[in-house]
Amino acid sequence: LNGQNQPICTFLAKGPPSSTVTQEGLAILMEIITFASYPSRLRKLTNRTRAIHMVEEGADFMQVYEFFREQGFEMSQSYGNASRVFRGSVPNGLPFTKDLSYLKGFIMVYNYIQLAVRKGKLEQVPLLFCGKTTLEDMRTLRQLVDEGLVVAPKYLPEQFRDMNALAAWMCFSNFLNHLSLDRIEADYSNIL
């Protein structure tokens, strides 16, 4: 909706193919921070990424199918996942890599927000929602907003309406990432 509300830069309503990674990354981030995602969904995404890597290293359809079976997927799910990896390719062709955009985009968007918090540039974060954009467009978008050519997003997900709360969450997340799980496991050995 924000892209459709742009009076001048109407191109933000329809993103170019290059916006896929950022847009899919935002979608995964929203799934996670709204608690709409679940472990099996994230496992599916990571396993598809691993399967794509296998194909890039020379694995064929049956090897990818067996990989999914080893990960605990049913036969039909394994076949569907393997088919998805090879979608649109010839029998010995390269994998279909759109599934990489989900995790790559999530990592890139998450890191962008972390860096915006660290550098005190929280005003940049809502620009992710101006329309269908890429991370590489963020500086330009900031300039266009400052010049009045792009309208700041009217609609923001609830988690992005309070930048201070988001910054606190990201700082705490960063802190938790630096804790040693081995040490925590040792500390909790008597209670878990």
How many separate helices?
A: 8
Uncertain residue ranges: none
Straight-line distance between termini: 47 Å
Q: Largest sheet, if any?
A: none
Oligomeric category:
single chain
Query: What fraction of residues sit in β-strands?
Result: under 5%
Class from secondary-structure proportions: mainly alpha
Structural domain tally: 1
Provide a descriptive summary of the structure in words:
The chain has one domain (10-177). The protein contains 8 helices and no strands. It has helices at residues 20-33, 39-56, 61-70, 75-86, 98-118, 138-146, 163-177, 181-187. The longest helix has 21 residues, at 98-118. The radius of gyration is 20 Å and the shape is flat. The relative contact order is 0.15.
Offer a few descriptive terms.
mainly alpha; 192 residues; 8 helices
Quick structural summary:
With 192 residues, the protein is mainly alpha-helical. The protein contains 8 helices and no strands.
